[in-house]
Fold MarR family transcriptional regulator.
Amino acid sequence: MQIFAQHSFGMQLAQLSRAWRAELDRRLAGLGLSQARWLVLLHLALLEDAPTQRELAKTVGVEGPTLARLLDGLEAQGLVQRQSVPEDRRAKKVVLSPQARPLIAQIESIAQGLRAELFVGISEDEQRQCQQIHARILANLEKS
């Protein structure tokens, strides 16, 4: 029974992740951004220091060439800028442009509205417990 419960837990978690992201993507469609692009913008907005392209690729969970193409598009839209790193000529830091801030505020507002709907009837204690469980699973994954 435990094996089935663990399998079911994993499947449900994957389904939740896909459905949540798809719904957010649907709600953000009017902003003219692909899921990959708004995800990069949100990650940049949440990071305290401007990351290098390599760091950003790892944070977002994409390969370097994929991120480079995304950044090319975001740069063409005037939403990000790549800046040289003095101590490493090969590295580029990625920063949000001033034009990106209002767009990110819209993304965050839409995302917050979705979160408010999704967490109806779920207490803060339940959310905290769920986050602790996820953190432990992630820690176990990092060990392997």
About this structure: The two ends are 24 Å apart (CA to CA). Helices lie at 2-28, 35-46, 53-60, 64-76, 100-118, 124-143. The first helix runs from residue 2 to 28.
